[in-house]
Amino acid sequence: MIPVSTSTPAISTAQPEDFFQLLKPRVMSLVIFTAATGLVVAPGSVNPIVAAIAILCIAVGAGAAGTFNMALEGETDALMRRTRGRPVAAGRLKKNDAMAFGVVLSVFSVMLLGMNTNWFAAGLLLMTIVYYAVFYTLMLKRRTPQNIVIGGAAGAFPPVIGWAAVTGDAPWQAWLLFLIIFLWTPPHSWALALYSTGDYAKAGIPMMPVARGARSTRLQILLYSLVFVPSAIAPGLVGMGGPLYLAVSILGGLMFLALAVRLWRSRAGDAPDGIGRDGTEVVGREAALYDVRAEAKPARNLFAFSILYLTVLFAALLIESFATFGAT
Amino acid sequence: MSVYLTPEQLTARNRRSRWIAIGLVAFIVVIFLSTFLRMQRNLAERTAQQQVVAEMAR
Question: What is the CATH class of A18-322?
Answer without folding.
Answer: mainly alpha
